Amino acid sequence: MLTTEWNWDTAKRVWQDEAREEGEEIGMEKGKLIIAKNLLAEGSTPEFVHRITGLSLEEIERNE
């Protein structure tokens, strides 16, 4: 048996916070991919791009 009452406002706030965090993570990943593409276009090696962005070499090569 539940001893607390469900609070829709609290639940909504938690869902919004989780969605915002997920959106930030997606945005940061997209930003890293843009930086990687720009670095590669300027002649950087995939290894250098990996060190700078933290992306895996597979991700970098997939997005060349």
Concise structural overview:
The protein is 75% helix and 0% strand.
General description of the model:
This protein has 64 residues and is mainly alpha-helical. It has one domain (16-62). The chain has helices at residues 8-41, 46-53, 57-62. The model has no long low-confidence stretch (mean pLDDT 92).
Mean pLDDT: 92
Identify the overall geometry: rod-shaped
* Percentage of residues assigned to helices: over 70%
The number of helical runs is 3
Strand content: under 5%
Count of beta strands? 0
Using only CA atoms, what is the Rg?
Answer: 19 Å
* Structure class: mainly alpha
Terminal-residue CA separation: 55 Å
Q: What is the element string, with H for helices and E for strands?
A: HHH
Counting copies of identical and different chains, the oligomeric state is: single chain
Domains (count): 1
Which key phrases capture this entry?
rod-shaped; 64 residues
Set down the secondary structure blueprint.
Blueprint (H helix, E strand, L loop, with lengths): L7 H34 L4 H8 L3 H6 L2
